[in-house]
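Q: How would the structure tokens look for this protein?
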Amino acid sequence: MLQACDQVALQLRKKARFTGEGYPDYIFTEKYSDIELSTEIIGLNLIYINQLAAVLEGTLRTLICEIMEIDSGKIGELSISKKSDDEYGAICRAYSVTKKYKEDVEFKGGWDNLKRQYQEVFDKKIDSVLDKEKTSGLNSIFTLRNVAAHGTAIVTPKEKLDDGSEADYPFKWQRKLQSLSVYVKKEFDLDLLDVLQHPSLSYHFTELVKEFLTKFRGTAELPTNSQALFNNLQNYSFGYRNNFEFPQSNKN
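A: Here is the predicted structure in token form.
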């Protein structure tokens, strides 16, 4: 999936047009207002953000599953050593529950599910890694991914609708997209339908994901496969051809 991101990012860099003074070598670090909007960019942004969301979710899900696999092994070893003890039955039940929950984590997708599962396993909240504003931006990646995945028109009301309009179609979209709209307005000074035409939208979200992973990871040692996936994302250079580490299994 990250290799697919590479191809889309290269296209975004190729199509990006700078309107400011000079000829920058790398357009994405320039002021957003100095970069031209284009309807050609909409599809590329939606494709890229969809892939980025999948890579981030898959990376964190791999981490949870890998740690639970390690824990399951330790419980299994403990059950063997306790075979003649009263605790043997309780340890076996714990092993069974852990294995079953690992399967739930692997097969129950979705960002909200992942955040809940992470909190249940590690007693920590993913939403506490970044500040409130950046957390809203991170969650917005998945809002946009879900909207695009459903293949329906994006409706953004021009004015805020009153609470009495819950049954109206535009109100439902307003509630779904409000935090995303607020976030991109602050970062790009553009409305949602306009920011989708901005070549730097995908770059911006990529840098946000990299910042999140750096703070999320800290100085912790990661299991082998998770470490490779984290390294790939943290070292990712948007708009360049990247070389990736491949984990031993579950290649992303």
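The chain has a mean pLDDT of 85.

The radius of gyration is 21 Å.

Upvote if useful.
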